[in-house]
Amino acid sequence: MRGLCLTAIPLVGMLSLGRREESKRSRAIDKTVVLLILVLGLQVISAIQNLPVSYAAHALPAVALVILALAARADPADLSTSNIRTCLRAPVAPLTAILVLGWVAQLTHQVPSLFPSARDLFFHGHRLQGLAAHPNSFGFLAAMVAVLAFCAESSRFIWIARGVAVLSVIASESRTALLSMAAGLLLLWVLGSGWAFRQRVFAIAAAALVAPLAWVFINIHRATGTGRGDLLSGRGLIWANASRLVSQVGVLGDGPESIGRLFPTLAGPNSHLLEAQNLWINDAINFGYVTSALMAVLLVSIAVTRHRNYRQAVLIPLVGMVVVESFSEIPVDFWAGIVQAFPIFLLLLVCPRRSVETDPEPAPTWRQHFERGEIRRVTDDRAASESTVPRNSSAPS
């Protein structure tokens, strides 16, 4: 019943948009849509091949959310950066409402607090998981909302939304979400428009200074706090063992959630893993290396859209966030829930449709002028003007 509701809500939202007239420009084939269809199609084929056919219903909520994003995509208008930032205010409000709803649901115990926290700051010593199944997923959702809010034009409400999103990332205690948010803001600062050269240099210098300090801090924390000095929190062993499985799976992989079903002890005899904690390795095991490569091409195609203002204003920061998150978590998964389909939803929502530059109409030939009667009319007018000129009856003597 829950999955049916999560599937119906995006479809109702799509129908509420109404049927709009689309020009020839907006009906052009979009490579982003083609890549998305290929990725989803190969994943569904892999699921049907390795699991019961009914398992394909697990992807319906995510597919419905993607359909809603495609229906609400921006028209191919070459807007200025200022206009784009103003338009980005619109999705910030409902997304912030989702974050607030997650806080309310967990504070009122409508959502159980399942993940203990090392710091007793929120929820009686538990991490914020909101409406997601795991705090890391909700933290990354909040991180994307935070970067989107910083991309939007500032206002009093936008500053409130930024505060709510950043606080949600902190309450989730997801280090990867915090790191991806910092990467997105850095890309916005360095590559976004409207910043002076001095400010860009300052951003690069600050990142170069903070990165090694963060590396030292994490290593000290690991060595003194948990007894492990692994910067990747044990992910290095998981990645090494999971990489060996990629060569053993078929072209279409072993289906969704392969590691949890087939290789739960990937990190050791006492471990019970559900994923490889790396999007690219995880997708290669689940759906094959071809699907994993197509996912990378899909993200690149969104980031390098021909609309330069969209790239600088919002797309590069958001895609950069997904890439950073993908090397430690699974930010995009159409089978794990609607929250992990949110990054693709947001990227499609702010990525404009493909625009086709129509060739200018060629100049008409003389035959076309003649067939239209334009040459005849010009000749008749010239003859009429000559008839009005008085002629001498005799030559001068």
Characterization of the model:
With 397 residues, the protein is an all-alpha fold. Helix content is 61%, strand content 0%. It contains 17 helices and no strands. Helix 5 crosses helix 7 (156-172). The model is unreliable at 1-7, 11-27, 356-361 and 393-397 (pLDDT under 50).
Radius of gyration: 29 Å
How many helical stretches?
17
Structural class: mainly alpha
Average pLDDT score: 79
Helix content: 55-70%
Measured distance between first and last alpha carbons = 112 Å
State the major sheet: none
Strand content: under 5%
Low-confidence stretches: 1-7, 11-27, 356-361, 393-397
What's the total number of strands?
A: 0
Q: What is the N-to-C succession of helices and strands?
A: HHHHHHHHHHHHHHHHH
Shape: globular
Defining traits:
397 residues, mainly alpha, disordered N terminus, disordered C terminus
Quick description:
This protein is mainly α and 397 residues long.
Give the helix/strand layout.
Layout lengths: L1 H15 L14 H20 L9 H12 L9 H7 L1 H19 L27 H17 L4 H17 L2 H17 L5 H30 L8 H12 L11 H5 L16 H9 L1 H15 L4 H19 L15 H9 L15 H6 L2 H14 L10
Helix pairs in contact: 1-3, 2-13, 3-15, 5-6, 5-7, 6-7, 6-8, 6-14, 8-9, 8-14, 10-12, 12-13, 13-14
